[in-house]
């Protein structure tokens, strides 16, 4: 007596199991059950996981002389325009943008190939590649709208399934993942050394504070510009990474330079059915939604 493998299954399930494996239209996702339910409630359905990756070699950075001296020359509390050091760090910053954008573009291309309208829950990870260089990966879940109204190009969003649904129900739609990257530097001169000595006591080191302020301010400005390129009216901010490192000054070997790196990632958003009159230029609003853990 021969026993069928699908014996006892409901008719629909038995028929599905009898289909060739390649013909079964299955999908996978990185969504939790709560996220899946939220995405479904917003009129979308997952079509599969997508991944984009890029590895870049970091060679010429364009840094010459001692760019940190510019901030010192104007005093520890001076508001030095970012343009004064942008020319020195420009090649490195362009590479940081290019690596992230290429990984994102590849993830979006895979979303389009699956017939998706956008990516939810994008995780953008940056690290060192074992053989040297910079490794960037972007992955998330591609989703498709159950509607005749479809975006012209797939979007990428860091929002979780629940936050994505809240956004849609509130009348907003993601337009893309926006980035803000800035590098600022300051030469560690005698002013800072005097304020950080043991004899100085407890007090603010104005030069260091300004270093952080300039990095964050310039990153926010770049984030707004990137969001505008995506057609966004506002930005829902995901995270702000602000780190400080030190290195030997290229001009004066016995001293050091401090470099502050600010990276902001967010999702640019726009309202549904925005009229052309209301879509004129305006100030971008930066918001933050608490992510559900």
Describe it:
The protein is an alpha/beta fold. The protein has one domain (26-287): Translation Initiation Factor IF3 (2-Layer Sandwich), CATH 3.30.110.70. It has seven helices and eight strands; from the N terminus they run H-H-E-H-H-E-E-E-H-E-H-H-E-E-E. The chain has helices at residues 11-18, 33-41, 69-73, 83-113, 161-169, 190-195, 206-229, and strands at 44-56, 118-128, 134-145, 155-156, 172-187, 234-248, 256-271, 285-287. The strands form two sheets. It has a four-stranded mixed β-sheet with strand order 1-3-2-4. A four-stranded mixed β-sheet has the order 5-7-6-8. Helix 2 runs parallel beside helix 5. The longest helix is centred in the middle third of the chain and has 31 residues, at 83-113. The protein starts with 10 loop residues before the first helix and ends in a 6-residue tail after the last strand.
Topology:
Blueprint: H1 11-18, H2 33-41, E1 44-56, H3 69-73, H4 83-113, E2 118-128, E3 134-145, E4 155-156, H5 161-169, E5 172-187, H6 190-195, H7 206-229, E6 234-248, E7 256-271, E8 285-287
């Amino acid at each position: 007596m021969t026993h069928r493998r699908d014996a006892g299954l409901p008719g629909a399930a038995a028929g599905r199991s009898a289909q060739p494996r390649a013909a079964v239209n299955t999908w996978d996702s990185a969504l939790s059950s709560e996220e899946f339910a939220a995405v479904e409630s917003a009129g979308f359905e997952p079509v599969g996981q997508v991944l984009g990756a890029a590895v870049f070699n970091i060679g010429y950075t364009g840094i010459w002389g001692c760019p940190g001296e510019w901030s010192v020359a104007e005093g520890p509390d001076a508001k030095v325009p970012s343009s004064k050091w942008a020319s020195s760090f420009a090649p490195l910053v362009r590479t940081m943008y290019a690596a992230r954008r290429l990984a994102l573009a590849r993830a979006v291309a895979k979303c389009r190939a699956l017939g998706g309208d956008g990516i939810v829950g994008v995780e953008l990870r940056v690290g060192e590649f074992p053989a040297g260089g910079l490794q960037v990966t972007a992955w998330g879940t591609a989703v498709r709208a159950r509607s005749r109204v479809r975006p012209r190009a797939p979007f990428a969003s860091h929002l979780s399934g629940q936050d994505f649904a809240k956004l849609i129900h509130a009348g907003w739609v993601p337009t893309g993942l926006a980035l803000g990257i800035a590098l600022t530097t300051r030469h560690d001169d005698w002013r800072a050394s005097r304020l950080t000595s043991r004899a100085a006591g407890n007090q603010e080191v104005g030069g260091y504070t300004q270093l952080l302020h300039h990095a964050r301010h310039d990153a926010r400005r770049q984030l707004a510009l990137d969001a505008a390129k995506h057609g966004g009216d506002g930005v829902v901010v995901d995270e702000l990474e602000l780190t400080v490192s030190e290195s030997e000054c290229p001009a004066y070997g016995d001293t050091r330079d401090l470099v502050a790196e600010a990276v902001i990632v967010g999702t640019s958003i726009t309202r549904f059915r925005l009229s052309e009159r209301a879509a004129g230029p305006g100030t971008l609003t930066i918001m933050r939604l608490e992510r559900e853990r």
